[in-house]
Amino acid sequence: MASHDQSFRAGEATGRAEEKGNRATDTVKERAREARDKTYETGQHAKENTAEKAHETREKASETAEAAKDKTYEGKEKTKGVVQQTGDKVKNMAQKTADTVKSAFGMAHNGEDKDKAGHEQTTTYRETKY
């Protein structure tokens, strides 16, 4: 009978060990599922944060580009005014130079034949026949 009793106990021990192994396996599987779900959630959260940050970066870049465009336009307008003023000054200087040369060679007209002191200049022309 000892053999039957030992067989019975061995069967019980095997059953308990198998049950214990199944519980351990189930626990490991459950933890693996939880880890997988946690990893998925973390990945989704990171994906959402990345998309949000990318959108914010695009918005900031757009705002910066718009500000640069405005500054460029302002600078262009300012430069345009400076160039216009410079052009006017050069034109006036050239006109004064031309008037001075005309006056010096007696080519001035309409009261423009006065020197700097306001004295009228006279030039005598002789007709030469060939």
Automatic annotation (TrEMBL):
Gene3D superfamilies: 6.10.140.1430. Residues 120-130 have a biased composition (Polar residues). One of its GO terms (cellular component) is nucleus. Residues 15-80, 110-119 have a biased composition (Basic and acidic residues). It comes from the Eukaryota. PANTHER family: LATE EMBRYOGENESIS ABUNDANT PROTEIN (LEA) FAMILY PROTEIN. This is Late embryogenesis abundant protein D-7, putative. The lineage of its organism: Eukaryota, Viridiplantae, Streptophyta, Embryophyta, Tracheophyta.
